[in-house]
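Could someone model NDP with this protein?
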Amino acid sequence: MRLALLGCGTVGSEVVRLLHEQAADLAARIGAPLEIAGIAVRRLGRDRGDLPVDPTLFTTDALGLIKRDDVDVVVEVVGGIEPARGWLVEALRAGKSVVTANKALLAEDGAALHDAAAEGGGDLYYEASVAGAIPLLRPLRESLHGDRINRVTGIVNGTTNFILSAMDATGAGFAEALEEATELGYAEADPTADVEGFDAAAKAAILASLAFHTRVGAADVHREGITEVTAADVASAKAMGCTIKLLCIAARGADAAGRETVSVRVHPAMIPLGHPLASVGDAFNAVFVEAEAAGPLMFYGRGAGGAPTASAVLGDVVAVSRNRLAGVRSASESAYADLPVRPMGEALTRYHISLDVADRPGVLEAVAGVFARHDVSIATVRQGPAGGGATGRGEDADLVIVTHVAPDAALAATVRELRGLDIVRSVASVLRVEGGL
Ligand code: NDP
Ligand code: HSE
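Reply:
Sure, complex below.
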């Protein structure tokens, strides 16, 4: 079985290392040896350490490598939309099998890849694209195909989880924690994709597509990153017995007419410390799947890094190689349900709002009136002196309000109106809340 490896960076170099170290076992599992036909990179002169591979295999001509007749499987660990899309469509149309870790491309234009795979008759596998080493997509697209999935909730970005965990545990600064995550090989080539939530949104789109048999793209996902999470938010969460995580939530629901829909969102949220996702630290990922017959399932493991991701890539390489030897291909994309994606405004969420207000009679009533006007029910209110110090009438006070579940649009409108009240000096923090508080 001859492989074209596209990319030899954090993930690709670990793929090469594992292919070398486990050559005999992999050959035994597949029924044929795996050989690297060539490795496409951007810079031929780059120092690649003591990578156990023949240096003459490197090329900058990715397309030429893909088109070679002696290539059976194309493994893409370059990333980005172009030229990766063109390469993979070319490979799939030519009947080659493709293994990719490229969630950005799958979420941007998965349809082009699936269509090309159907045309060419090869396999398209992408286990490494979501949650690194965790076997998650295969369970969704195979093991749970007899069930009905209602909700998927998870931490699917290692970099942001690393940053938020560091901010929470050690009070580390955002920039310092991001630098460390980048050094450890967790971050994307442009870490904006991580911290602004684009990477998690791409993964959410892939998960929702598989869970709900519906084509969901990156543009369908409501996305907020962690760049606006402040040390004050982290402290506020701690004071409530909570922590902040960047969550991906994909759920079935219904619109006003009772039509079945899905909603897919990525945003930071406060979760209670007793919530199983609260203890997921470092660059680990965890994903809850709630299925009708199976009940809740939890998947946990390393979500980023060269070796964990290479493990998932090689698992796919073994699967597609076996299929090729057997002359079969796996089931094609399942998108028959074609459910509409509901806008974020209609998603049901809860807010934690921290206000700096004037400390005088009637303030609570005025604030509560804003919530009432937007039909948002308040779950808890806590008032204390501003900044936690001693204060008297006429000075400021901190007001922390946690709501019951309401449409996100109503909650957002409530916050907008609160910002306009003269008794509200500032809205110190607004965070969504998931899990019971
Ligand atoms: P790197 O930036 O470390 O490596 C990218 C590789 O692609 C490099 O070898 C680079 O060549 C090569 N490359 C870039 N542009 C071209 C080009 N135009 N033609 C040929 N080769 C090119 O990325 P990662 O290994 O971190 O990530 C690769 C993919 O895996 C991405 O899609 C990423 O999202 C995904 N992924 C990454 C994870 C991680 O933890 N890092 C986890 C899960 C998925 P050169 O070496 O010469 O620079
Ligand atoms: N940058 C990604 C992350 C890599 O931090 O999760 C794994 O997909």
